[in-house]
Amino acid sequence: MSSQRDDDDDTRPVVWAVLIGAIVLAVGLALGIGVSKAMKGAGDASAGSSTAAAGASGDATNTGAAGAANTGAAANTGASGDAAATGTVGVAVLQLRDDESRVVVDGEVVKFYFASGKADLADGADQALAAVIQGVAAGKKAVVSGFHDTTGSVALNEELSKQRAIAVRDTLVRLGVGDDKVELRKPEVTTATGSNAEARRVEVRLE
What we know:
It contains 5 helices and 5 strands. By secondary structure, it is α+β, with helices and mostly antiparallel strands.
């Protein structure tokens, strides 16, 4: 009996050591698994933040590009609208010499430009007056007004602008428009704007 108790006493420390080792191992495994999960969660959160930041940056870039494009389109539209509103198409680009005559159809107005000191109509006058003739045939009246530049004698310039208006009227009559359908109307201000070459002109419009 004494020998058996001695054997039991000898095995107890070994059993306790095994139990303690198993407990320590289990605790270590539990801690390791917890730390691993925590690190994985932190990594996923970091990746999600990076993706969200990249997405936000891309959206901001796209939004900025779209805004710039819209702004450019708006600017272009505004510029086009201004040009149409001022009616400068075909007129602002005129570059006339002092010895040059020309006829231009500017919307519903036919403009005859004259060389300095001359009352001769430019080539193409008949074709340019076609719409005016049609308008008179439809019951309207052609109004002819002469303008002059600011150089030289005012009296001589006014007489010359009148002779130019008469030349335009005579062309209308020659093309079949009755005298009673053409009115020579002196403008309130006979000095026209623009360069001297642009100011020496006669305008024909329908009323």
